[in-house]
Amino acid sequence: MNLDRVEKIAEAVLYEGYMLYPYRPSSVKNQQRWNFGVLYPPSWCDRQFGSDRSSMQTECLLKTGSSTRLTVKVRFLHIVQRSIAKAVSPTTGSSGPAKPNLEPVDRLELAGRVYQPWQEAVERELSYDDLDPADFATMSPLLFSFAEGRDIDYLRDEQGAAVGAMIREWNALNGSVEIRSLSCHDDVVRIAVQVDNLTGSDLPMPFESESRETTLSHSLVSAHTILGAENGEFLSLLDTPAGFEEEVAHCQNLGTWPVLATDNADAVLSSPIILYDHPQIAPESAGNLFDSTEIDEILSLRILTLTEDEKREMRQFDDRTRSILERTEQMPEEQFMKLHGILRGLTPSKEEMQ
Length: 354
Fold this sequence. Notes:
With 354 residues, this protein is of the alpha+beta class. The chain contains nine helices and 15 strands. The protein has a domain of 69 residues. 32% of the residues are buried. Helix 6 crosses helix 7. It starts with a helix and ends with a helix. The chain is globular and about 70 Å long. Helix content is 19%, strand content 34%.
């Protein structure tokens, strides 16, 4: 079982919508973060009338044997709020740089670089390995938590004095993962993985006055699940094997959809973005562009048409968007040519099939 290929596809899912072209926070469509697969706190969902949810569930079929072992990974983004502050009185202490008093600002320019607030994200992963599908028919939910935190990155001038700081803060997240199995057909079991955001469930009416943007910092963003089997084989829910139609019909997938992610069917990717079985990253693609309408050639060419001021903003605000810009600017001509005119998956027309 090798999950490397699956995780590359999952990486694209994880950052889908992280920031959209033209990859600048000042762009209108990047003023409010949007992502697929957000699990909000339950109290927030209780006050909404749309499709916001606090949990997701994956159910799929696994052909097992006595030596079958299951791996379950749950991955999501944890929102980090980056704020900018200036030093009220920049100082350098006799025994090293001193910590200055800080005052929040909307913008700070230092050494030709502009620093401004932004929402970043940290990857979180929960991994449960070497599970015997025959052992956890009634397994209790597995609780997880990530503590709140704060990190200060001081910005210093040429003399070493702290003249400002980037302050990164993140809220605590609490949740649970419940893994169940149910024997349903000879050696085939139905595997269920339910992920719940339990953040704030122990508080009286939390997030009552919070905005959606603020609530995102208490949410599991771009949540998805990877399942891997050693000495086992997952069955497709899209191309159902004969005789398993009823078992497939009983699989309930909520907020996510599982597809076979490897050629030998030993792994499943269950994501909020509906994919076909055996999804692949195009070999011509130089890297993820985050955009839900992603067409590598068009987006790459459009990036090169940005003004120098737009590129500067893209480069300075976020490490991931800076990587996109640098990769695109350094892309050789032959790589651009590979992005153009690729044709795959030809199928005969209906007339030819008759």
